[in-house]
Specification:
With 115 residues, the protein is an alpha+beta fold. The chain has one domain. The protein is built from 4 helices and 6 strands, in the order βββααββαβα. The strands form 2 sheets. A 4-stranded antiparallel sheet has the order 2-3-5-4. It is globular, with a radius of gyration of 14 Å. The protein starts with a strand and ends with a helix. The relative contact order is 0.29.
């Protein structure tokens, strides 16, 4: 058995941007959860979750020794800070959006997540 858990229960994130490219790094709170996150939080999952916001490719870089993933999202800021009418043209809300995705967690691991 397993349950769907919001990613923010397992990880935190930081965002950055340059032009029309947004980068989000996701870091596991507990190194023991990193492989679970790495297995499920793919570039395809992010691209499919936000098809109207990400017009370009999503590339994932793995930082295994640091228990983190870095996602580079191309054409994801409506043209960038100088051209977008979006409220968050710098891409800071990408951390919030990605941490809202769910990860399937086995019931035997979910006790510390729901605490």
């Amino acid at each position: 058995m397993s349950q769907q858990v919001p990613l923010h229960k397992l990880a935190h994130a930081r965002a950055g941007d340059k032009g029309n490219i947004s980068c989000v790094s996701v870091w596991a709170y507990d190194p023991g959860d990193y492989l679970l996150i790495k297995e499920q939080l793919t570039a395809d999952k992010i691209k499919q979750a936000f098809p109207r916001l990400i017009e370009g490719d999503v590339v994932r870089y793995e930082l295994d020794d640091l228990h983190g993933l870095n996602f580079v999202m191309y054409d994801a800021l409506e043209g960038g800070v100088n051209t977008s009418l979006g409220l968050d043209s710098h891409g800071k809300s990408w951390s919030f959006l990605i941490l809202g995705l769910t990860i399937e967690v086995p019931d035997n691991k979910s006790e510390h997540v729901n605490a």
